[in-house]
Design a protein that fits this description.
The protein has 495 residues and is an alpha/beta fold. 37% of the residues lie in helices and 24% in strands.
Length: 495
Amino acid sequence: MRNLAAKIFAKYINYRNRKWILNPIDSQKKTFNSLINKAKGTLFGIDHEFSKINSYDDFRKKVPVRDYEGLKPYVEKMLDGKTNILWPGSPLYFSKTSGTTSGIKYIPISKESMPTHINTARDAILSYIHYTGNVNFINGKQIFLQGSPILQKKKNIEYGRLSGITAHYVPKYLQKNRMPSWETNCIEDWEKKVDKIVDETLKENMTLIGGIPPWVQMYFEKIIEKKGKNVGEVFKDFSLFIYGGVNFEPYRNVFKSLIGKKIDTIEFFPASEGFFAYQDVPNEEGLLLVLNNGIFYEFIESSKFYDENQERISLGNVEIGINYVLIISSSAGLWGYNVGDTIKFISISPYKILVTGRLKQFISAFGEHVIGKEVESALKKVTINTSIKIVEFTVAPQTAPLDGLPCHEWFIEFQTLPDNIEKFSLELDQELQKQNLYYQDLIKGKILRTLVVICIKKKGFQNYMRSIGKLGGQNKVPRLSNDRIIAEGLMLNNK
């Protein structure tokens, strides 16, 4: 009965969502008008003359693009207990997150925006059920590796990590199947928490596992250490892996080895600021941009983002293949907000995207502007159909080598090394040249030499993240840095 109900509900949600999928521009117009009308009486709405905004052009003129620092004066008023600042009333929560330039950020979540985080995750799983017919996983135990659900308070408003906040919203019908126990989920120390999760889940029939790949990998490795079997043998009915936060491709070979069998996957694109997209069709490239979640989207070409007269466009004017910075306005009270992520469209009917990286994560020490998607694509090309398995990696410029020309240094932790590291490095460099013509010109012009691979010892990235207090949870190692801070930290932990 439960399996049949899940299939019927999946069919209904798929039918309902077709309305906004097939009418994307109308959906965005309705969202835009609703957001402006509801926020007219807020401090932000008054400051920016929302009462005079009758079109998207009006909005662009009155509301500049901001990052968290630009919105911070308003957020601080909310943290001080003021109401009707960015959105009517007070936030339901603040999602606490860390930024590279802003320190700790408190992203407001309103009573209107909170359900969108939960419902979008639900719809993604139901879409998977609709297309595959697989409902067996709902009968077993499920786990999403996440931060602690213990919340703190500022002026009677609770705050914590987004994953900890959403832990309070697991539907009742899933409660008895949810892992780990509440007590274990509240453990702050990540290594102790994973050890306890392993103890609790080993005796269970785990069918669905989700989380950020590097931390799920840590969980899998501990299971193998304890049982001497791969994860697929320990959890024989494990059939669905859900991930987000980072591109899964660099981890795919390692996960295949750890699990020992092929399983289905679903990719999410969540953030504290909103749940933006998900993989709606299994085994199909691209994430469906969610247009019914109280978010109005804008886009700026990433190559022109820092131009004095940057052009902001709405959904109807995007083009396939262009790298855009994602800008949102939402029912959480974020207005013209630069999320910091970059995306590109691979389809406009329906609107499907690939996440290409972070605006501030790039290498352009020599004018090449290499982005995350390019290094990940190059790495995928040289490892696919090989025995090479990569645990983690990051890339940094070496501008002052002890000898020879400057270069890009790739810090890679291998589970299985290439037979010939020099050949691997050369092939990787050639693939990166194909991905980025500016980099190719620098190599051919002998401004740069070919990239250098530095092998990081086992658990080197975990040790580094531990050393900076960011082991586990929602923390991720940046793929690219335009400085040497991460590189030097890795080398210090690599001795």
